[in-house]
Amino acid sequence: MPTETRTTATLWTTRLDRASPVPLSRQLAAALRQAIGEGSIGAGARLPSTRALAADLGLARSTVVVVFEHLVAEGYIAGRPGSGYVVATPLTEAGPSDGCVPAGPRPLSRRGESLRGYELPLRGLPRPFELGHAEIDARFVAIWKRLSARVLAGRARLVWDYGDPHGEAELRRAIADYLAAARGVRCAPEQIVLTSGTQQGLALAARLLIDPGDRAWVEDPCYRSAVEILRDAEAEIVPVPVDEAGLDIAAAPQSAGPPRLVYTTPSRQYPLGMAMPLARRVALLAWAAAAGVWIIEDDYESEFQAPGRMLPSLQGLDRAGRVVYLGTFSKLLFPSLRLGYAVLPEDLVGPFAAARHLADRQSSALLQAAMTDFMLDGHFARHLKRMRARYAERQQYLSDLISRRVGGLLQIRPAESGMYLTAWLPRGWSDRQAAAALREAGVVATPLSSLTLATPRDPGLVLGYTGHDERAMARAVDRMAAELERTGPILLR
After folding, report:
1. pTM of the predicted model as reported, rounded to 2 decimal places
2. Claim to verify: residue 370 and residue 409 sit in the same structural domain
3. Which pLDDT tens digit goes with each residue over 464-487?
4. Greater confidence, 76 or 174?
5. How far apart are CA 267 and CA 275, in angstroms?
6. Minimal CA–CA distance to 135: which of 332, 372, 312, 289?
7. How many helices (H) and strands (E) does the chain have?
8. Is 235 a domain residue?
9. Which residues constitute the domain of residue 315?
10. Nearest in space to 422 (alpha carbons), one of 413, 432, 431
11. Which helix (H) or strand (E) holds 39?
């Protein structure tokens, strides 16, 4: 056997693992495919004979023959009468002669290009004062495990096949009853479509209601994921300032005419925390009805406010069918639940359910069944009551801590309880630089300016206090005080 043939054979010898459960024939085929695909064996290169390769690798010749025949059928190699097997034409004809892949990003769609620089959140153990974490105690975990086991054992309620893209009927009835009692929402169960959360609900609504170039009014400051979702739908984003009463449509630019939709968080404006008063809610609805504008009402955490102080939802006051109401269980129970809902005007239900079906068909039937039992057995109401009290205590605890330790540098203004609060820095400071300095000290704070689109505001830090125990928050506030006192003079804008 020529020396060069023996050298070629040894390219794959070390790749065959006789201790592996993978058959040697499959290992050999995979090694050959990889070597050809990577260009280690160039186009037109002659392969060893089946007899020589079998002898070199300690395989039966029939094994090598079968592998070669498969690679011929797949187009990797070609058999030439009288001269054995050679590597076929390269998988790609275009490109540099040295076989390197051209450097630089390959072209995407406009939507794809817009997502190139999108930073995905990195999640690990909760760090004070990261936003979006929930309080998950042993009592809740025990109840959820028991209900999940009951659903799996009973099989009566669980749908094992594909389910209804609208969501399971019993859960939608439970949601409709709950929303009517707690939020003044006026709907039949048939107007509810289950989603994986408010973000998917907004994305599906944008797909149905926005054409490229349509204007979307958003609160300023605003939940940034909502802005990015609307941008992904190719909407023209128009920031509308909020004042002490929330979204102020009178402050919006009027020269270009009304938008296609308005996105708002009226129950607790994110991230400033105020509620939209009744008079402004009525005025917003009257304007939307007259102008033919859709309203997306994101009711993301109103459940954690005192029940007697909550105003009825916009949807419950709407008589023109202009409001799409979005809610979520993921913030109320645990983030990985990924279960929410949209309450829709009747003529939107069919298109919305179709869009949900095309996106990912349906929510998990197991989670829907467990959630149904959680609501019907009374656990949901008790859980909300318990978390409402705990979150109010946690907010007061953090507010007192900051007042004592950082009161000269951070100001806390009165706010409704929820899952976060906004602390205000001295005027002239850079909240982005402050957040960066705190991150180096192990404290996560969201700069208010990162949630602001156009309206100038005093610098502030948005601090989440749910899912963080009091000892961790106390240590974090100590580090925050030390860092802000040390770096304060250099945090000017």
Report:
1. 0.82
2. no
3. 999 999 999 999 999 999 999 988
4. 174
5. 5
6. 332
7. 16, 14
8. yes
9. 138-381
10. 413
11. none
